[in-house]
Design brief:
eight-stranded parallel β-sheet, Alpha/beta knot, 174 residues
């Protein structure tokens, strides 16, 4: 069996130059391999630069994740990090804005956010959301209001809406 983490994962601290519209995803405590596989696939389709996963309390690159990603993992930088708050501090030092997706009355509507520029989008698990210290490290919180009886979207569906809104905003400025 291949050690996927060792063969695919990268070190974000090795990156010296970030483009003006660089975008990373931090997936905090995603435990469902189906969700992570779909997140990887969606990120690759939306032109995202990489996905950052916590080393602990998260699914990593299993056979199921890779299968669901439909090969997108081959074109996506994956970073597995010990401390997400430290990664956020590092990226802020490189002029990134951090946007957390959260069901919250204090969050701005998802379509009102500016997703251009150097940004990190933080998503959390459906059950727990974004951990408290990670959420506190975000510069902005955004939400997708629900109109039905269910109070949240699947995490990969919510991320899809956000990423393609980002893509729309980038396309409009061309």
């Amino acid at each position: 069996m291949i050690d996927f983490d060792a063969t695919i994962e990268k070190d974000i601290y090795d990156i010296n130059n970030f483009n003006d519209n660089t975008c990373y995803i931090i997936a905090d405590q995603i435990n469902d391999p189906q969700n992570l596989g779909q997140i990887i696939r969606t990120c690759e389709c939306a032109g995202i630069n990489g996905i950052i996963l916590p080393k602990h309390n998260s699914v990593h690159l299993t056979n199921a994740v890779l299968q669901v990603s439909q090969g997108a993992f081959l074109f996506m930088d994956i970073f597995i990090e010990n401390n997400l708050v430290n990664i956020i501090k590092f990226l802020k030092s490189k002029d990134f804005w951090i946007i957390g997706i959260e069901n919250s009355i204090d969050a701005k509507e998802w379509y009102q956010m500016d997703y251009k520029g150097k940004i990190v989008i933080v998503i959390g698990s459906e059950g727990k959301g974004i951990r408290k210290l990670v959420k506190k490290s975000c510069d902005f919180l955004t939400t997708i209001s629900m109109k039905g009886n269910t109070n949240s979207l699947n995490v990969s569906a919510a991320l899809s809406a956000i990423l393609f809104e980002r893509q729309r905003q980038l396309d409009v400025t061309k």
